[in-house]
């Protein structure tokens, strides 16, 4: 699928102006999750501020997704504002003023004390949850986009979205649907999360994870268009989140997974991953009591090196299967 322009309300970079924050007219505090998520109304449109203990990992995962999913899945722009910047103080002061009397006051006060804020482009669209999504979920092109995002989630071990190989109910709120240009619907992936299992320090855990990825890919290679039993959990999650039965759409999702793995294997190298990590590392203007560095240390490159090796090992066979479809 060719790269297409996004239709978000405001780019994060557009908010890089102290005066803009002083003129924010409203702030909504999200009740989802333990981290602080604030949706702000500005003269230039909506923008999201996010805090928490994983903003460095999310920045890295988002930057990596930009490199590996370009033209496949839409992703919001994000950047970091650090405690020593004038913009940080402007954001903090305005957010506090707008939310101090809200029912979330205690949470707001706690989150605003953190040393780093993530500024994220506000993604227009509706969550991939609830009723009325029949035409979206049953759209072949959209189903392939789901597969592309699942492939990336497997690459970084992001268990907080679609339970393709993970034993949970998923979190479909981290996937949005918006009208696309050139396709009926556009998938937007938000809140990328990496869980890097060290192959050396946690060999058993990594081997178990790699085995799950391998088992799924082997099954898809054998019958790429036939409903795969390894994705039963995903089908159950779709039923729970949307009320829809997707077994008839699994063929397109599965082809999307294979396409995604092949695309990632073709684009990623250990050097490219390290370049992304360096970019994330330098995104903080300054560190505060090693908070940023401790978050960065959780991005274990040996995990990604091992996943690169795994994906690359599957690429020739995947390409052969895709050519026959």
Question: What is the compact description of this entry?
Answer:
With 325 residues, the protein is an alpha+beta fold. The chain has helices at 18-22, 55-68, 86-99, 105-112, 134-137, 140-156, 203-222, 232-242, 250-267, 270-281, 291-297, 301-323; strands spanning 26-29, 37-42, 45-50, 78-82, 116-121, 126-127, 175-178, 186-189.
Fill in the keyword field for this structure.
5-stranded antiparallel β-sheet; globular; disordered N terminus; 11% strand; 325 residues; 47% helix; alpha+beta
How would you characterize this protein structure?
The protein has 325 residues and is α+β, with helices and mostly antiparallel strands. It is built from twelve helices and eight strands. Strands 1-2-3-5-4 form a five-stranded antiparallel beta sheet, sandwiched between helices. It has a three-stranded antiparallel beta sheet with strand order 6-7-8, with helices on one face. The longest helix has 23 residues, at 301-323. The model is unreliable at 1-12 (pLDDT under 50).
Write the layout of secondary structure elements.
Blueprint: H1 18-22, E1 26-29, E2 37-42, E3 45-50, H2 55-68, E4 78-82, H3 86-99, H4 105-112, E5 116-121, E6 126-127, H5 134-137, H6 140-156, E7 175-178, E8 186-189, H7 203-222, H8 232-242, H9 250-267, H10 270-281, H11 291-297, H12 301-323
Antiparallel strand pairs: 1-2, 2-3, 3-5, 4-5, 6-7, 7-8
Number of helices: 12
Largest sheet entry: 5 strands, antiparallel
Number of strands: 8
Distance from first to last alpha carbon: 16 Å
| Oligomeric state as shown | single chain
Instruction: Give the strand order of the largest sheet, numbering strands 1, 2, ... along the chain.
Output: 1-2-3-5-4
Poorly predicted regions: 1-12
Globular, elongated, flat, extended or rod-shaped: what is the shape? Answer: globular
Strand content: 5-15%
Order of helices and strands: HEEEHEHHEEHHEEHHHHHH
Mean pLDDT: 90
How much helical structure, as a percent, in the residues? 40-55%
**Could you tell me the radius of gyration in angstroms?**
20 Å
Overall structural class, as computed from helix and strand content, comes to alpha+beta
């Amino acid at each position: 699928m060719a790269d297409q322009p996004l239709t978000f309300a405001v780019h994060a970079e557009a908010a890089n102006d102290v005066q803009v924050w002083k003129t924010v007219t409203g702030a909504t505090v999200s009740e989802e999750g333990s981290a602080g998520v604030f949706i702000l109304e500005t003269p230039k449109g909506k923008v999201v501020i996010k805090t928490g203990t994983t903003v460095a990992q999310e920045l890295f995962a988002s930057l990596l997704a930009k490199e590996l999913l370009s033209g496949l899945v839409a992703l919001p722009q994000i950047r970091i504002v650090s405690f020593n910047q004038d913009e940080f103080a402007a954001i903090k002061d305005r957010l506090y003023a707008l939310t101090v009397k809200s029912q979330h006051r205690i949470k707001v006060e706690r989150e605003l004390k953190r040393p780093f804020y993530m500024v994220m482009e506000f993604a227009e669209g509706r969550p991939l949850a609830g009723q009325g999504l029949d035409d979206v979920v049953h759209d072949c092109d959209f189903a392939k986009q789901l597969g592309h995002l699942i492939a990336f989630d497997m690459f970084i071990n992001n268990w907080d979205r679609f339970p393709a190989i993970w034993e949970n109910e998923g979190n479909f709120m981290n996937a949005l649907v918006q009208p696309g240009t050139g396709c009926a619907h556009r998938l937007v992936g938000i809140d990328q999360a990496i869980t890097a299992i060290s192959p050396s320090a946690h060999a058993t855990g990594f081997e178990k994870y790699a085995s799950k990825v391998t088992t799924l890919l082997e099954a898809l290679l054998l019958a790429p268009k036939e409903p795969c039993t390894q994705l039963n959990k995903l089908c159950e999650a779709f039923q729970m989140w949307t009320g829809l039965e997707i077994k008839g759409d699994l063929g397109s999702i599965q082809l999307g997974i294979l396409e995604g793995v092949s695309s990632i294997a073709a684009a990623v190298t250990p050097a490219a991953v390290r370049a992304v990590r360096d970019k994330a590392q330098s995104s903080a203007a300054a560190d505060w009591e090693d908070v940023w560095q401790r978050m960065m240390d959780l991005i274990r490159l040996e995990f990604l090196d091992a996943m690169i090796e795994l994906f690359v090992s599957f690429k020739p066979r995947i390409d052969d299967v895709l050519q026959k479809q």
